[in-house]
């Protein structure tokens, strides 16, 4: 009886809302508790297709998540007699209804489809708890299939208590939202949170910024996080001369993790959503990097688009990486300056030359390799960041510090904004030719297209930088099976072999800090029914030059 009355009231409210604003789609979201389980009831109203068949899109696989239809507990057509068909492969729900039906009122219930504590594996799935919810738009809203790209959408948040926060990519604490002329793509790329979140608000040149978070944080204070966020956005917007974004928010969700730190984040419409391991292994410096890299994608990757995604990842990921380091150091974000910049570049050098695929041609950074192989997924970050660093220094040297790579980046943004120019190799060569001449074409072909190592020692000598010719590189020393539970092979002469690890060992525990030579790899090994603890430092010495973190170098690189 209670639920029937609730549905009636919600339906009436939805109808009134639709009449007042006349949106293309009207949603109403309400909390629902059934069998002590928290859920979300979503009702929607939209135009019916004259064919008598209307499709609601709701992907079963998104962002690597599978079986997302499992979160839909029930569906119901409210204002007509009809049938509802579900198609996981195509990612939609089909409503069969009378052909003379003008509009459809439809409801469905969303649930959290796992019972165990949240981990890195679940942060992109709908999280619906008694105290809060954290759901991405494509997991929350079914979308009627339409021919037009932009729509008006209303969202009513009903039945939540006064103390419950309602916060999302389109506004904060708005129980009635009207999104006018919004792209479907933008609406589907958003975050919606509610419940016991806390919202910290500020502004930059009259534009609203906010941080929405919850829980009791162990590694940092929320005020410190908000300070880093504001510093980052202020400096990035100043760099691009772009203060056009009227609203921007970051959501920060904690999750438990015993060992090591983990940061998950994704850039969205007007927002960035991150989930972070809440333990003593996470720290504010990691968050400084995360914000500066990911929020730089508001321009590199969002406004400046790759013509062929993976082919230009050396730019969209590598140059973003470099400008994260540079932006932090140049603006002393959270007290990190020139020393941080040199340390970051040295770490990039070590990571690049430690990679087993560091000489792979750019053509091998393709969809399958990038998304299916950890080594390939990191390669464009390292290679592109180091390439950007060299170009920046070359332009400054050639122009007596009158110009830098900054000027190149602003020109690329201008062309992307005014001409719709995408980042292609030919276009990049054309822009760079104005600064470094035609010889740059050969340099680009050798070190980006072919992937041959950059001549770092010669370059450091040319700039008068102090450096060491040898360094310690990360070498894990062994290869794991696809399920990461068995040692497939061990590199001869490596520290892993010296510590006693052999092919065929099964792992029941592991602690690996990838790229970090200062922390030991610790493995729990099962061999012949016995448990063995193996620990070693994943390091080898190689002829790879790295910069000295000296006052002279700091002055030359960050004047």
TrEMBL record:
Superkingdom to which the source organism belongs: Bacteria
Could you tell me which Gene3D superfamilies the record lists for this protein? Neutral Protease Domain 2
Which one Pfam family would you cite for this protein? Peptidase_M1
Q: Care to name a GO molecular-function term for this sequence? A: zinc ion binding
Q: Which InterPro entries match?
A: PDZ_sf, Peptidase_M1_dom, Peptidase_M4/M1_CTD_sf
Peptidase M1 membrane alanine aminopeptidase domain location is 273-444
Transmembrane segments annotated in the record for this chain: none
Q: What is this protein identified as?
A: Peptidase M1 membrane alanine aminopeptidase domain-containing protein
């Amino acid at each position: 009886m209670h639920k029937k009355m609730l549905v009636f009231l919600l339906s009436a409210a939805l109808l009134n809302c639709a009449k007042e604003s006349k949106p293309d789609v009207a949603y109403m979201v309400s909390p629902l508790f059934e069998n002590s389980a928290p859920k979300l009831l979503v009702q929607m109203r939209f135009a019916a297709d004259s064919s008598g068949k209307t499709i609601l899109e709701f992907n079963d696989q998104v962002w690597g998540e599978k079986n997302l239809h499992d979160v839909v507990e029930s569906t119901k057509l409210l204002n007509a007699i009809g049938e509802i068909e579900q198609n996981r492969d195509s990612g939609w729900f089909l409503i069969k209804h009378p052909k003379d039906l003008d509009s459809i009122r439809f409801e469905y219930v969303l649930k959290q489809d796992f019972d165990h504590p949240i981990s890195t594996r679940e942060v992109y799935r709908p999280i619906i708890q008694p105290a809060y919810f954290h759901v991405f738009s494509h997991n929350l809203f079914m979308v009627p299939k339409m021919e037009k790209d932009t729509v008006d959408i209303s969202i009513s948040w009903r039945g939540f208590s006064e103390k419950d926060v309602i916060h999302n990519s389109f506004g904060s604490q708005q129980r009635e939202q009207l999104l006018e002329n919004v792209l479907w793509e933008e609406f589907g790329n958003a975050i919606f949170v509610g419940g016991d979140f806390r919202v910290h608000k500020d502004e930059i040149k009259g534009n609203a910024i906010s941080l929405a978070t919850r829980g009791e944080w162990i590694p940092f204070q929320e005020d410190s996080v908000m300070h880093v966020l504001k510093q980052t956005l202020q400096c990035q917007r100043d760099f691009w001369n772009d203060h056009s974004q009227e609203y921007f928010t970051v959501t920060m969700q904690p999750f438990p993790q015993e060992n090591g730190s983990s940061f998950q984040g994704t850039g969205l419409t007007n927002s960035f959503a991150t989930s972070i391991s809440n333990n003593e292994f996470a720290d504010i410096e990691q968050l400084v990097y995360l914000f500066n890299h990911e929020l730089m994608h508001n321009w590199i990757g969002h406004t400046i688009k790759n013509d062929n995604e993976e082919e230009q990842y050396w730019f969209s990921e590598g140059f973003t990486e470099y400008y994260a380091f540079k932006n932090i150091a140049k603006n002393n974000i959270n007290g990190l300056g020139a020393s941080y910049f040199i340390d970051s570049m040295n770490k990039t050098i070590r990571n690049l030359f430690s990679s087993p695929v560091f000489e792979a041609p750019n053509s091998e950074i393709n969809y399958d390799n990038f998304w299916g192989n950890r080594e390939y997924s990191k390669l464009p970050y390292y290679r592109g960041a180091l390439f950007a660093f060299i170009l920046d220094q070359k332009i400054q040297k050639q122009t007596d510090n009158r110009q830098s790579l900054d000027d190149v980046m602003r020109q690329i943004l201008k062309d992307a904004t005014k001409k719709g120019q995408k980042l292609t190799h030919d276009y990049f060569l054309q822009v760079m030719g104005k600064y470094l001449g035609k010889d740059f074409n050969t340099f680009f072909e050798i070190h980006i297209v072919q992937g041959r190592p950059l001549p770092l020692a010669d370059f450091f000598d040319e700039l008068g930088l102090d450096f060491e010719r040898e360094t310690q590189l990360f070498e894990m020393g062994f290869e794991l099976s696809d399920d990461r539970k068995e040692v497939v092979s061990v590199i001869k002469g490596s520290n892993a072999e010296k510590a006693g690890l052999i092919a065929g060992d099964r792992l029941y525990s592991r602690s690996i800090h990838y790229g970090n030579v200062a922390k030991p790899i610790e493995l729990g090994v099962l061999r012949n029914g016995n448990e063995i603890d193996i620990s070693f430092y994943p390091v080898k010495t190689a002829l790879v030059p790295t910069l000295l973190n000296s006052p002279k170098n700091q002055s030359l690189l960050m004047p």
